[in-house]
Amino acid sequence: MAWYPGATKMELQPESDDQPAIRPTQFILHSIVAPWTPERTYEYWRDSTNLESHFGLGYDGSLAQFIGTETRADANAAANRRADGTGAVSLESASNLQASDPWTPEQVETLIKLGVWLHQQHGIPLRICRTADDPGFGWHAQFTAWNPNAHSCPGAARIEQFKKVVFPGIVARAAGKTPQEDDVALSDADVKRIADAVYIKLLKTDGVLDAPADSAEYKTNRFWSWQSHIQDVTTRVRALQKAVDRLIASQTKS
Description:
Blueprint: E1 8-9, H1 15-18, E2 23-31, H2 38-47, E3 55-57, E4 63-65, E5 86-93, H3 105-122, E6 136-139, H4 156-174, H5 188-203, E7 209-210, E8 223-224, H6 226-253
Parallel strand pairs: 1-4, 2-5, 2-6, 3-5
Antiparallel strand pairs: 3-4, 7-8
Helix pairs in contact: 3-4
């Protein structure tokens, strides 16, 4: 039996010892349709039913494991254990009473960490299951073979979240990467603030660039701002232009 080190062990007996072994090839996510802590989920499996999941996840990201991941649990119908000995690891997560809410950020983080561990521990491939028997990651309502009663579990919001956030997060984390944030365009106000800062720093602040060595104040003012350089160049160019204009005028008169 394999026990995830990131979960609190709450072993269900006699199921943990009596149920047959599996070779885990899938990870299937559920909502328990109740705002339960992992402890309350454990009590429900222990006292109220002969069914169970491998894991229970609370709103705050707390996680409990009830059965080793290489032992059958009974939350996934035909995916619990197949004739070839393969089976699915199952997780029940706290939700509202309609199973309509998304996973909390804490739940998402725990799901990603557990998904990476299952990939590394059992070789569950980093793909969404393509069929009911296909190794990979999925959700309870994905296939009738897993969900013969046609529940919407884990709920539309969480299915969408699984596709866009949880599963990509597992893949990225397993590859040693973090998902990149989308670039955000600068607003006009942002551009103005940047321009003002650059103007103040480069154009108006002395001590940015070396002053010309032949400037009259070089010994006392070793550095000039961009503005000082531009004004100096402009003054010299205009003086040169005036000299050229005078020369041309004198040649024309003669």
